[in-house]
Amino acid sequence: MTHDVTLIPGDGIGPEIAAAMEEVVAATGVDVRWRRERAGAQVYEGCGTPLPDSVLEAVAETKVAIKGPTATPVGSGFRSINVALRRAFDLYACVRPCLSMPGDGSRYRDVDLVVVRENTEDLYAGVEFEAGTPEAGHIIASVNERTPGAIRPSSAISVKPISPEGSERIVRYAFEYALSRGRRRVCCVHKANIMKATDGLFMHVAERVAEDYPDIAFECRIVDACCMGLVCDPADFDVLVLPNLYGDIVSDLCAGLIGGLGLAPGANIGSECAIFEATHGSAPDIAGKDMANPTALILSAAMMLDHLGEPGAADAVRDAVREVLAEGTSVTADICRALTDSAEGAVGCAAYGHAV
Ligand code: ATP
Ligand code: MG
Predict the structure, then answer these.
(1) Which segments constitute the Isopropylmalate dehydrogenase-like domain (predicted)?
(2) Which end of the chain has the lower number of beta carbons within 10 A, N or C?
(3) 68, 236, 301, 325 from 320: Cα distances, Å
(4) Could you give the angle at the alpha carbon of 115 between the alpha carbons of 112 and 117, nearest 5°?
(5) pLDDT category, 143, cuts 50, 70, 90?
(6) Pocket-forming residues, ligand 1, beta carbon under 6 Å
């Protein structure tokens, strides 16, 4: 069966890691017909928008997409292309599995946890205001997405929307995910002791939803204590479910537990469409140097193959990554440095992809 998939290589290291990912997917023998679309800073000049309609049309048609990181030009009318895509397709669940692999260069072993991040609400709503003077006592201007350049209000307010519907569907997603993959525990992460209305709502909804899943253990942790727990004993965690902003931060923390951003895959899932993408950004500091680690995008492709109903190919990709890392002779500079403090002997992005 042929699978139509939209491929957005993206900016920075995007094209390099996308090429490596394509070679790996081709090697599985699964028949993927790529529909290539350009988005990000690279098309902004020519198209006047970093997110042309053709990209939205392609994703709407293929229902499945994989993308490299995109940079969002300032003043382009977008706060973030990723946020815009997640909104456009209501990709409410961001799923980021973090699994230790031998040779990953991490100081931790036996990490096997999944971050389930709410993707549509919270401080990411991007509703921010310049506040009035204390005398005026009211909001005087809204900072909209067309505001060019840096925004430097003298005093500012950001809005944090959390709804019962938005909370329930992400928590339910986390429990269903746990159930379908034989996982045993779900941990709701919050700061309800301080943000009683918003995080309190998220936590209370989670407690209620948990009652529908008596076979899955449930606990709540305050985000700061949870971070400490993660760095002290990450093997103690299973499925984490978090509001958007904590999810963003804890995702990068968890990437650090398994060898860094170069290794952490992800998926943005909605009821209609899914977009697979690595946790990391466009890494402009190493772009165009054949130095990036494409593993995160390759493992995102494995998640995509699972989603497409090709679990054999998905496992083959994961096994190949595991083997190449364990062997340790064809690994990228980030991994080399983590293992030996030097990038000597590292291979490039393309050579690593080829090895996988
Ligand atoms: P964003 O705002 O999009 O999350 P960011 O500012 O957090 O972006 P990243 O682009 O994720 O930044 O990069 C953070 C650091 O990690 C950079 O030093 C970058 O070189 C490194 N990095 C990110 N991805 C990779 C990768 N795939 N391989 C090697 N190094 C990477
Ligand atoms: Mg980041």
Answers:
(1) 4-356
(2) N
(3) 21, 27, 13, 9
(4) 175
(5) very low
(6) 13, 69, 261-262, 280-283, 285-286, 292-293, 296, 334
